[in-house]
Amino acid sequence: MNDTTHPPSWLDLNEDEKVVQQDRPSIIPYLFQCVVGIVVALFGLLMLAGMNLLGFPGPFPRGLTGGLLVLLGVLNLGAQLLDWYSSEYVVTTDEIYEKKGIISGRFAVYPLTYSSVQIDDIANTSVEKGYFGQFFNYGDVSVVPSSGTYLFLNDVWDPDHFTETIRKAADGYSDAD
Hints:
There is one protein chain. By secondary structure, the protein is an alpha+beta fold. The chain has a domain at 90-176: PH-domain like, CATH 2.30.29. Helix content is 39%, strand content 31%. The protein has helices spanning 28-48, 62-85, 131-136, 159-176; strands at 19-23, 87-92, 95-104, 107-118, 122-128, 138-145, 151-157. It has a 4-stranded antiparallel sheet.
């Protein structure tokens, strides 16, 4: 994504505030969860087709169980994709924003929450990558302000670059004083 020429419609920038970086979380961890949903749905479809995959003797309500598994798999798939699509991270010259939710026009379609930390208030940032995060280059970024609530950004693409962008924005902010 990383389009810095057009700020997101949900973000009201100050007159001199500019977008430095904007991105969605990495799709990789969401895809892993989507695979789980697809496997559960396929398992349910096989049960609906009459296969006794669970090995229960005698009559067993395979249709009901298979239908529920298909429903759960599809709901998991939809929830994972909606969660990914509705999340966005933005670094500006003044603040770091995390948005979760979907806006359509003036109405929130999916529960909308914003969190932000002022760039000049940041005391520390840290990056944590798991095994898959190291392999696929994504991780979690913690932004700790000198006062107030910290910001925890999940599954950031290239978190080392992201924290470097934050550092550069903070240095630029300090230079402007």
